[in-house]
Design a protein that fits this description.
The structure holds two protein chains of two kinds.
Chain A lengths: L2 H37 L9 H35 E2 L3 H6 L3 H4 L2 H12 L4 H6 L16 H26 L2 H9 L4 H29 L3 H6 L7 H11 L3 H30 L12 E2 L8 H33 L8 H6 L2 H35 L6 H5 L9 H12 L4 H25 L3 H10 L3 H12 L1 H17 L2 H6 L7 H10 L3 H26 L1
Parallel strand pairs in A: 1-2
Helix pairs in contact in A: 1-12, 1-15, 1-17, 1-18, 2-7, 2-9, 2-13, 5-13, 5-24, 7-9, 8-9, 9-12, 11-12, 13-24, 15-18, 15-21, 15-23, 17-18, 18-21, 19-20, 21-24, 23-24
Chain B lengths: L1 E3 L4 E3 L9 E5 L6 H9 L16 E2 L2 E2 L10 E4 L11 H11 L4 H13 L16 H13 L5 E5 L7 H18 L2 E6 L2 H7 L2 E6 L2 E6 L11
Parallel strand pairs in B: 3-8, 3-9, 6-7, 7-8
Antiparallel strand pairs in B: 1-2, 4-5, 9-10
Helix pairs in contact in B: 2-3, 2-4, 4-5, 5-6
The chains are: A mainly alpha, B alpha/beta.
Chain lengths: ~550, ~220
């Protein structure tokens, strides 16, 4: 082994540990700082107890409503994707990538494009005789917020529940059937119970995403209908009421930590399940299953039709609406050439390239370091504390992180933005890398350790090559997530700095809707390409 | 009965005498378990090349298109398939509840029935606290409490160790004589087959290769 290579390996290992420690500090420091204003003297929290309670209750209402929609649509869709064969099944499953690679801002623009006051639907309906006002107004209300968030996140529930449904042991259902149970009884007495850990494991992250939702609430929220996240942003950035901001941050983080704790408890129950059945039943066509009665077949067809209609109307149409919205202005398709050649766009691309790749790199290094430590210290996943730690960033919102960063450093910089994004996003990379490291048989690691006197050889010659694909895949994934992040760049507000996501938001808030949709479409395409590249590499 | 896959076709004609135990033996992949699943109604027949419709009759009644739960057939699965979230008592009472019996009555009957299988005091336990042998006994009780006309055993003892397999195969034989049900038992264990069987059927690549008494059967026939 060349001494240069050995030195490089040691440097890389030390660098990785330093990055990991820096990430811990980056995560904890702003959190601590966010709590400091609560302990200081001066004016008290401007929000009274009742207002705080009202905002918290409304945040819960929004998150629960959105999760409920995601769960209903997701579980219905999962039934069909897991148990039935139909044209478009694989396409439906592939939609699970959308919540990861299409930023919420873009989805919000899509909804505005289709269901907005001047959206496609209202424009079409206004052509009907006898209508005086715009008939579709639900978007700028509680219903609009939960519809957009629920449908945006339903593919996450669908993907997890569908995979779990396919893994359910068929023998138990067969046994129940032989004992005279019908499909309904089997579903309610067995399947639902067996699926409940998967449903919970899928719904809790969705609940958290909706609990922290910022952009959609900011765009569609009504006066008085504000969430903790939006109120915190207003207090931290507009009214500069730091005590109130800190109180809101504390309430929000404690609520999210509780959800994370429940998630940590439920997740092992879901992941330990496995298909013990030796018969993989064939997927029947819609309404043609072997054991169904006529009424059940009829109901199945109706539910399928309703699910497809809902997904098309509230998911696919808004996605298409982003593109349609971009060409709805006076420039038509030339909006793209205009925007690409604009100075603002160039600046945004530069900003994105300055942040997203570095943020993704930090995510991967942090994730790999922790995953490797976990593989060595707790290979069987017995320590709940060690296993739950990487979930903690899920309990901290971008606004809280940005607010804390602002309190510590007073002024946003590109470096802080990269660090803050990495501190929040690395758990996404951790999941993939940890799965790959866990798949390495212990005997393989033991053999490697016995064959070399240098412990780093096991790391660099066994572990890293074994999860090479996961590393590349999670890099692409984090790149896409970082690129689509609007909230942190907005909260940190780095002077004279733009990213593609932030530029899209700026265009939308300055009422340049077509240009905003065009920029959003380009951002969306880039995110999808990166995500797809990561997925392809993973397979 | 007829079932076709890419690799081979299962084409079997089988008659089982009432009150006897027929054991189907054969190598892995010979189609033994598929025969049971077709009889149970858990799998679909493939259309025969000659266009004839496969037929299953039970005590003179055609049940080919009858749903599995209404055929009067019980099945004991390889991995016992107990419902892990229900107690032993509720597992045994499950079928009775499906027939509309009240929860209290079904539980009481299930508790009484468990004692026939040496499982007194097991009613409130969860399936995951049972040993392999106990779980398989519960599974047998859950099936037999329904008084099925035909009981299908899909390699019920294959996951157990040899001494326990021997003990339980004798217990199954005893309960078959006691309850008088007709049974079809699938196994790849020759000793088990000889303990349980009134008649042995050898299946090879989806076809009945040989059929006769346990005494006439020898292990060489499988090769």
């Amino acid at each position: 082994m060349s001494s240069k290579i050995r030195a490089a390996e040691y440097t890389a290992a030390v660098f990785a540990v330093l990055v990991f420690l820096c990430m811990c500090v980056t995560f904890l420091l702003p959190l601590g700082a966010a709590a400091v204003p609560l302990t200081g003297t001066g004016s008290g929290v401007s929000l009274d107890y009742k207002a705080l309670l009202r905002i918290t209750a409304y945040t819960f209402k929004i998150a629960l409503g959105s999760t409920l929609i995601a769960a209903i649509v997701g579980i219905s869709a999962a039934f069909f994707t897991a148990n039935r064969s139909f044209p478009g099944r694989r396409f439906l499953l592939s939609l699970s990538a959308v919540p990861f690679c299409v930023p919420p801002l873009i989805i919000a623009l899509g909804f505005v494009s289709v269901f907005g006051i001047n959206g496609t639907l209202n424009t079409l309906l206004m052509k009907l005789p006898g209508l005086s006002g715009r008939p579709v107004t639900f978007l700028y209300s509680f219903t609009g917020v939960i519809t957009a968030q629920g449908f945006y996140n339903f593919p996450l529930v669908m993907a997890v529940v569908s995979a779990a449904w396919e893994e359910l042991p068929t023998d138990e259902r067969d046994a129940a059937r032989m004992l005279g149970a019908g499909d309904g009884r089997i579903f309610f007495t067995l399947t639902l119970r067996q699926l409940s850990p998967a449903v919970a494991a899928a719904c809790i992250p969705v609940f958290l995403y909706c609990f922290f939702s910022f952009m959609i609430v900011l765009l569609f929220g009504t006066i008085g209908g504000t969430t903790l996240e939006v109120e915190l942003f207003q207090a931290a950035r507009t009214t500069l009421d730091f005590k109130t901001a800190s109180a809101l941050a504390l309430v929000e983080t404690v609520c999210a930590m509780t959800a994370i704790f429940v998630y940590g408890k439920l997740k092992p129950a879901y992941t330990t399940g496995g298909n013990e059945a030796h018969y993989q039943y064939e997927r029947a066509k819609i309404g043609k299953a072997l054991h169904e009665s006529k009424a059940e077949k009829h109901t199945e067809r109706i539910v399928f039709a309703l699910s497809v209609t809902a997904v098309v109307c509230f998911f696919l149409l808004p996605l298409y609406g982003i593109f349609a919205g971009s060409t709805s202005g006076t420039d038509g398709v030339f909006v793209y050439s205009n925007i690409i050649t604009s100075a603002g766009f160039g600046n945004a691309v530069r900003g994105t390239l300055l942040t997203a790749p570095f943020s993704a790199m930090l995510c991967v290094v942090t994730a790999f370091t922790y995953a490797w430590l976990l593989r060595l210290r707790d290979p069987e996943g017995r320590s709940t504390l060690l296993q739950t730690l990487p979930m903690l960033p899920m309990a901290v919102s971008s606004v809280v992180m940005g607010y804390g960063m602002g309190l510590v450093f007073h002024r946003g910089t590109v470096f802080l933005l990269v660090a803050a994004q990495a501190a929040l996003v690395w758990p996404l990379a951790f999941r993939q890398i940890h799965a790959a490291l866990s798949a390495i048989p212990q005997a393989e690691l033991d053999s490697a350790a016995l064959l070399s006197q240098v412990p780093l050889d096991t790391l660099f010659r066994v572990a890293v090559p074994a999860c090479k694909k996961s590393i590349v895949s999670s890099f692409c994934f984090c790149f896409a997530v970082s690129m689509g992040d609007t909230t942190l760049p907005l909260v940190l507000s780095v002077p004279k700095f733009d990213t593609l996501a932030l530029y899209t938001y700026r265009l939308a808030s300055s009422y340049r809707f077509a240009a905003s949709c065009a920029c959003g479409t380009l951002l969306c395409v880039l995110c999808v390409v990166l995500f797809a590249a990561g997925k392809k590499n993973e397979h | 009965m007829y079932r076709s896959w890419d690799s081979f076709s299962l084409d079997v004609s089988l008659t089982v005498r009432t009150g006897t135990m027929t054991v189907i033996v054969g190598r892995s992949g010979s189609g033994k378990s598929s025969v049971l699943r077709l009889i149970a109604g858990l799998e679909r027949f493939s259309p025969r090349p000659d266009g004839k419709k496969p037929v299953i009759t039970l005590n003179g009644r055609e049940i080919t298109d009858v749903p599995p739960g209404k055929r009067g057939i019980g099945m004991v699965f390889q991995n016992h398939s107990l419902f892990t979230h229900l107690s032993v008592e509720d597992n045994v009472a499950y079928g009775l509840r499906c027939r509309g019996m009240s929860a209290g009555k079904a539980r009481k009957y299930a508790t009484e029935y468990l004692s026939l299988f040496g499982l007194e005091g097991f009613g409130s336990r969860r399936p995951d606290t049972l040993s392999g042998g106990e779980a398989q006994r519960v599974s047998l009780a859950r099936t037999l409490i329904m008084k099925p006309s035909l009981v299908l055993f899909d390699e019920p003892l294959s996951a157990l160790d040899a001494p326990l397999r021997k003990k339980l195969s004798s217990e199954i034989r005893d309960s078959q004589k006691r309850e008088g049900f007709t049974g079809i038992f699938v196994t790849h264990d020759i000793a088990e087959a000889k303990t349980v069987a009134d008649r042995i059927v050898l299946l090879k690549a989806g076809k009945v290769q040989w059929s006769g008494s346990p005494e006439e059967f020898s292990e060489d026939m499988i090769d």
